[in-house]
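Chain X:
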Amino acid sequence: MKTNQEIIDIDLPAASKKIVLELLKKDATCQKIIGTDFYKVNLNNKSYNFYRDFTPAISYMWGIVLSRKYLWLEMLKNASIKAAEKLPKNYQKLRIFITNNYYYNALLVENVTLEGNGHDNLTTIIKNENLKRINSNDHLSVPIKIQSHRSNLYRIVKKGKKVLIGGNYDYTNVTFAINRSIVGIAKKIIDTFPGLEYICFEFFTNDYKKSNSPYSVGNILISPGVNIFAQVVKNKHSKVASKLVVENMLSRR
């Protein structure tokens, strides 16, 4: 059995680790299953399983996509919500998290580009950038995943040249900047799934600050993912997202 202090140092995805720490504050116990990467958290006669790389039932850094897309697309369209439509030109991408009692947050999602210095290859540039991100106090600064199939990993990048690092994203909290019409759409989406306590979804629009800007909903996710690091708000009242998720977990029968 691990002690609570030892558990703080375990190797879990950042979002899952945040949930574990919140549970430990409530006097939960945590045990690593010998010979595996699984951790079991016990609290009030309930057990919650966490896995080092992927936790199906608990928040994961990038979120877990809701399966059977054809079904939930039909549900959204029946609720007059635009989904999986042709994307507007020069669109902005958001990740919006909302609970069934309408606490929400919104992150602007942007592609990661790194600049060459004329003497390092792309692998070294990514590793140096990751050192900054890992040591940052900004939890929205997500470490870059290196795609092993890239053909240019060991080529020197010219000074000033910007390289797109596909499959990686930077996040900016825009919760207080999004237009109220987007909040209205978010409420309609969570209302479309009455069995869920919270939901996260991709939202594409021309301008998230303008009212009724053309939009399309992308993937629906059944976990907050990286949004867990941004506070949720409702009528100018705010809560810590991770605490709200834990409250919902503990309220389940």
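Chain Y:
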Amino acid sequence: MTLTKDRYELNFDAAIDATVLGAEATKDHSDLLLVDFVVEYDDRYLFVEILDSFGPDGFDLPGRFRSDILCDLLARMYRDSMFFHSFGDRQPKHVEYAVLYTIPGVDGILVSVLQDELKRRIPLSHPVWNADSAAECSVMNPEQWRKRYGNDALKEN
């Protein structure tokens, strides 16, 4: 299964279903902020958000990357998407949240800080919950994405 956003083509070979969300999913219906895709596998759902500094959104991602604004935005997108997703007719499965970023000049330390802060702000777990909100939360550049999901998992157009 192949999904496209802006200049990226993502291949999810083992997926059994996928939903394109983003702004179009709730356009004119609410102010929910949703991730780009929800990909369903046999054993989990993968929530995918793509941050492309060259995309048509045209806002300053490198500046936002170093601020709390981006972390708050990504956490809200996950929570809103989880809320939106929970009302569908779906089997309960683990959820993973994967953020693909294509921001030149952003190094591993900033990404690590963002990932740790994002896990805290979502939050992934809570003592009164029966299950975790997300089994995993990852922020990856294209090289890390391909390493994790395979060389054919991401193509740039």
